[in-house]
Every structure is written in C-alpha cells, then in structure tokens.
Amino acid sequence: MIKCDENYASLQSCASVARPRGWVDDNYVRLAAILYTKVWEKRFPGRSRRFMIDPTFAIRVLQDGIRDVEKLVSSYAKQMVGTSWKRIVHVFVPVLENKHWWCTAYSPNRGEVLVMDSLEPKKAPDCHHLSLTTLGYAMDTLFSALDPSWRVGRIHTWPTVSLDMNIQNDTHSCGVHMLIAIKACADRFVERVVVDNMSKERERLLCEDVMSTENEARSSVIDLLSTL
C-alpha cells in the first residue's frame, strides 16, 4: 500500500496502524522515516532540512555502542549525507526498546533535545537517561561525520525537555502516538500534542501516509478504491 524509494509497507503493516489494538511495526516506522523526510523536503522548499532516521540506527547504537556510528550513518542515515548541520532544523530518532516506541529529536537550530514518550511523558528524560546519553554521543558523531566543523560534545550541553502528550492507556498504541507527535513537531518543536480519539487518529495517520504524494503506490491504491 505504501512504497517509497524501493521500501514497502505491506498491507499487514498498514492494517496494524489502523486497527484499534494494532501495534506499529519497525518496517512501517522505517518506511515512514523515508516518506516523511521526502514530504518535509517539499513542504519546506529552500529552507533548512528536517530528517527522520531509520529506527535501526538507534537499535544498533543501543546494542553495540558508538564505535561504528560512521558506518551506521552511511547505512541508516544516508539521506543526511552531504547536508551541513547548519542547515538542519530537526533530526527525529525513533527508538524501539522492549516492544515500546519512543522518540528523541535533536535540533541544532534550537540547541535542544526533545523526548517523546506516551508511556511516561513528563518523566521521559529521566526514564531514558542512559539511552539518551548513548544516543547523544552517537548523534554528536553523526553531525561530526556530516560536517567537520561540528564540535563533538555540543549535544550534551543542550537542555533536554519532554513533549507534553497523552499517556497511552494500552500496551500497543505507542507507535501511533510517536508518529503523530513527530508530524506535529516537523515545522517546529511544540509544547503539547493532544490525541482526542485514538481510533480516528489511527485512521487519519494511515490515510495521510497512504495518500501522500510521495507514496509511489498512491495511484494503484486510488485505482483499487475506485473499483469498490
């Protein structure tokens, strides 16, 4: 149903986004990272860049440490290669730990780290302190690899704040909360994201992604819907 740069989100992955008790899988988040980055590039033409990184980046960093970050950049953040950190507004880094999605966003423009977690919104920086420390070193290395003028250690001088968001009332909607929050913060970091009706927000999220002009399978989906 969704295709972008030879990456696919299967019907099963898409259905999990819309189902009331569905869990967003890593394949869907991986596809979303590519899709959203392309959408933002066209939404903010001629302006500074916004990126969302493949979730495998954080998984590998938290498993293996920062010793191979430059290799990880070429594999999982290749859309950022060639971009100076001075042109980057935000970088969203989705994290999957123990079947739970959360996200940390880095803003060279603001000099700030924003943490999004629907399980512990107000305590997110404290709950993820160790992971944030490791990811901070990794992102320092990433920015340095992109542009030698980056001063390593800069991220650890930035304030880390939590996004005020709904607390999930189940064990499976974390990915939906995360993707909604990432979209809400694409233009600029906001202080609060409210989800009033999760069922409708699930449907809206999937519909936006499927009908995105960057979805290479969009015309096929439209043709299919016209036959119903």
Summarize the structure.
This protein is of the alpha/beta class and about 230 residues long. The protein is built from 9 helices and 9 strands.
Provide a descriptive summary of the structure in words:
This protein is an alpha/beta fold and 228 residues long. It has one domain: Adenoviral Proteinase, Chain A (Adenoviral Proteinase, Chain). It has 9 helices and 9 strands. The protein has a 5-stranded mixed beta sheet. Strand 5 and strand 6 form a beta hairpin. Helix 3 runs antiparallel to helix 4. The longest helix has 18 residues. The radius of gyration is 17 Å and the shape is globular. The mean pLDDT is 91.
Q: What labels would you give this structure?
A:
Adenoviral Proteinase, Chain; five-stranded mixed beta sheet; 9 strands
